[in-house]
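Q: What would this chain look like folded?
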Amino acid sequence: MDISENDLDDLIYAKSLLENPGLAVKITSALGTPIEKGIDLLPKGWHAMVEKGTRKALEASVTSAILTMNTRQQRDSANRIHKMMVAGIGAAGGFWGLPAISIELPLSTTVMLRSIADIARSEGHDLNSAAIKMSCLEVFAFGGPGKNDDSAETGYFAVRTALAKAVNDAAKHIASKGLAESSAPALVRLITQITSRFGVQVTEKIAAQSIPLLGAAGGAVINTLFIDHFQTMARGHFMVLRLEAKYGEEVIRKLYNSEDLGDRTEDLGNRAKDLGDRTEG
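A: My prediction, written as structure tokens:
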């Protein structure tokens, strides 16, 4: 199937977003301090606490983030507003330190999920769709390429493949029962799988906040990077889903992984800038 030039540009741009560096690289670049320094400062048993906190944050956000939105009206996403909200939450968390993470993380995650849903809507997706709601939650599993990733198949599409059954099962449950029954086994299984991936980024965020002398200002910066990362993943993800709805998943997947598409990433130019401006709306 032939794909239009504009849609091909969108796919190139989506791939450039989804292959952005991971959160740890972004935080290290912004702060000039390796994440490992903060990880060394975390108390013993912190990984278990992160997993528990991450799961609770996802469970708390899954019903509240989408239900209050206008689910059909398509408009540019309000990324800056959501960044300001998360930055404020991060500043408060940075001031109070690690003890505040149990409060700060659920609040940040809820705002982030709302921002992800906002981006989905801006790409033309219907938030009344159970599948799109679960795709919003799925974004938290996209950490970006790691240092050992050597192809697109080990990144974005690999994560989607790993989560496909859980996403579909949860979507079927939500379509029939609604989001009110958040403890349903299908949704619990999806959250469990996402937690193991999202927890990596949460650990990196907490580790950065553990570095001495960062304080409130550092918490705001780190939270801004935190939400920016997932806004970027969401934009790429929902652009790909929009194109898959139009051309078919297999067609878009093959194009995404083709060498020709990789060669054209150097020609983004003004098209990427225009899309980037829209993303920052």
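The chain has 13 helices and no strands.
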